[in-house]
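Still learning. Any example?
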Amino acid sequence: MKTNHNLTQLWKAGRCHAARLAYRLGLSDKYCFPPYFLWGTGTSAYQVEGAHDQDGKGESIWDRFCRSPGNIKNGDTGNIACDQYHRFAQDMELCRRLNLGAYRFSIAWPRVQPLGRGALNEKGMSYYDRLIDELLALGIEPVITLYHWDLPQALQDDLGGFAHRDTVQHFADYTEAMVHRYSDRVKFWTTLNEPWCSSFLGHQTGYHAPGIKDPLIAAQVAHNLLLCHGAGTIAARAAARQKLDLGIVLNLTISEALNPADAHLADKAFARDCGFYLEPLLRGKYSQAALAGIKDFKEQDLRLINQPMDYLGINYYARSLVSSTGKTHPVPGAEYTQMGWEVHPQALRRLLNRIRKDYPEVPPLYVTENGAAYEDLVTQAGRINDTKRLEYLRRHIEQVALAIEDGVDVRGYFAWSLLDNFEWAEGYDRRFGIVHVDFATQERRIKDSGLWYAETARSNKIVLPRNL
């Protein structure tokens, strides 16, 4: 990615604070980012691809979940979604227009291996060949997520999905096949996206597929998914056709006390929620509280989970508030997104610093998702003036810059998401995209937030919105 020469000199000279002051005073657009910083955006297969039963694709747990009445708002499904399966070239051209250095996408496991084991589906494999080649032709780095929630339904029916340890080996086999096929062209790989959601939203609250409501199963799924990460990491390195950048993506949040007297509760919440994943991944251990919930556990499991990683991806949307009274919402004077999530950008900087402080062994970090859902209105001229989303992105990217100044090794930022898409249990009611999608016509329009993000990515600095 091209980097502004003057900004590079500022970075090398260590004059970031001067640049930040000029930016704050409205005198300059500049805000320090390293010359190697990677700007991107992303999607996931079920949310955008559509073509749910075409070219040999198997059924996923989300295909089944969406067909059950009451699970998804308005009865929506991902059957068509953004139709990216047929329109990927158009969408990758949008990535080029947005000046992106990388595009993060997931492989739909049932598209390439319909039963989750056994024979591969060549038509599905060829689709990702074409997508990868299109990205590379445009000078955009492909970043592949191996699992973003769409387990083949056959594994759920036959084994109980991730609740059964045999699924770990099936995931490793799937990983080996994907890496062998695509790693000649793809360097960046993610094993799992947000295993907390797959475990607890999918198996404790039932809010996500497969819709199970059992805390004991959820805890076992959480452990087995970490085993999948470890086994998948080993399989990926063995099958790699070049040196990979390999990691996992976690949805992490900083827990903070609504009242200073409750600070100890915030520390406990952070250790419980973030520590459940960071301790075994980075240190090869669980807390006693975490172990107590895992029924099927073997001592060698932690050695498998604790594989060296090249990076850790962090998905951040909002902080978590705790209070001894249990009442934290709403915070007086706070802004909330359409999802009901508090907008508090400063917490992202605090999260990045907390991870570096508590886990000095952590690998380089990427903010792999960050974005906001707001209602969009299309003007008669076809413009989407989504000021709130633009400001959400700008203010959070500022905090990433400040964390880098603090000494945190953050290597990139991915806005969520490229397109308005199927937002899981919320259906199509919530729009996160920096590109607007008319789901009736599949027409795409870059929103004002997207235009701003494109200029920020192009110049490797935060630009003031007044310059657009």
